[in-house]
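User: Show me an example of a complex going from sequences to structure tokens.

Assistant: Sure. Here are the input components:
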Amino acid sequence: MSWAVEVRASVGELGLDVALEGDQRPLAIVGPNGSGKTTLLRLIAGAPAEMAGRIVVDGATLFDSERGVALAPETRRVGYVPQGFGLFPHLSVVDNVAFGLSVSAQRAGATDRREKARALLTELRCEGLAERRPSRLSGGERQRVALARALIVEPRLLLLDEPLSTLDPGARRTLRAFLAERLRSRGVPAIAVTHDLRDVEALEARVAVLERGRIVQEGDLDDLRANPATDFVSEFLDRP
Amino acid sequence: MSEGATTAARWISGALAFLLLAVVTLPVVGLLAASSPADLVAGAEDPLFVPALWLSIRTTLATLFIVILTGTPLAWWLATGPTRWTRVVEVLVVLPIVIPPAVLGIALLQGFGRQGLLGPLLGGLGVQVPFTTAAVILAQVVVSAPFYVESAAIAFRRVDVDLMLVARTLGASPTAAFFRVAAPVAATGLFAGAALAYARSVGEFGATLLFAGNLSGTTQTMPLAIYTALESDVRVALALALLLTAIAVALLFAIRVAPAALSARTLVSRNGGSNP
């Protein structure tokens, strides 16, 4: 299971020029606000934009500007959990999770998909939330539900945009461990945007530092510590 | 300012506000006071009444259907399309709100009349639009569509783009994502827009009179029947007026109350909780 992303795009003021690759080990993208982290995830997910480059996941070409390949988001099998989790407000938790089974090529019957969704919710220890609306969930519960919703369609790559940033410190600790364990047990490669060194440590992730649309440093935390390339990297590593 | 002057200012502003309130509500109160149940029954039995009511029901429902069917994709495009184009188109769409209805009536004749832009083409096909029921519907569509499209576009703009992207990554086609996510999330605004547009089409008078005429059973809707009845039997006008008032109150209720009930399910949940 490996992936490679090469993206050149200009979105608004930002010029993005990034080449990254990875395997099952999660990759954490860190960088100052406005450096293009969210834009990068959205482009990999298939958000409409003028871009050039190549995206290959698990041997499948999702995008290749030279060969004129540009798969629509629905055929990429890339899971996307946006900042704030993006739960559908008009659907109950179980219908949020089952959504992918109701629209995808692997469409299942209503009873069947709700059963599958419930099973996954149980696995993620939130079976009690099934009939609730997203508005009635805590931040941590939303994160689990959003993760369940992304995982149910068995993505080849998972994109997580600040999956822990909106949580209070207590929930954040619990959910950080939870997320790390889930990613390991599922074996899905993940790219996670984060602002927190502890997220990187818990996920045992490789780190790519994005500044003004460019990768300025990439490697293990130890590599970064040994030789921080920019002031931002030093500050990021110094944070408690 | 002295205390006396403050008190005086408060009285004056209160009196001015009350004056406006009285002017706004007095006609409706007068309408209710003027009609006895016997008058209303007599009015409803007049030969003008039923055809006008039936025509209004048919034409406004047809208008609503057309406005939603064509206005929804237009509103979606206005909300998600390239802004340099959508800004221009949006101005064109809302133009009928500010153009006087009588002017729209003339404009419709210039567009679809025998001597109008499309006149020769329509004539060649053996179609005549002015002074037919189709003209009534066309006039209603033109005056009411802007209310729906504007309200729907605002509602669609409030749908988080990430919700749509998530739906797509989960396997939804653009159409499925629209119907399963965007439309339900924007339902409150769509509903309010449809109610506003419906209210506008029920009350449409000026453009209809000029473009469609005032023919009983064919183009004489309730507002036109009121106009006609005033010249013969004021009781018919009052009965029609009260019915239109009842429809208006029901729509106002729908616009004010239903969205609040709906938003308890959708909008609040979108803004609540931990979303930044």
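The lines above are the inputs; the final block is the predicted structure for all two components together. Residues 266-276 of chain B have pLDDT under 50 and may be disordered.
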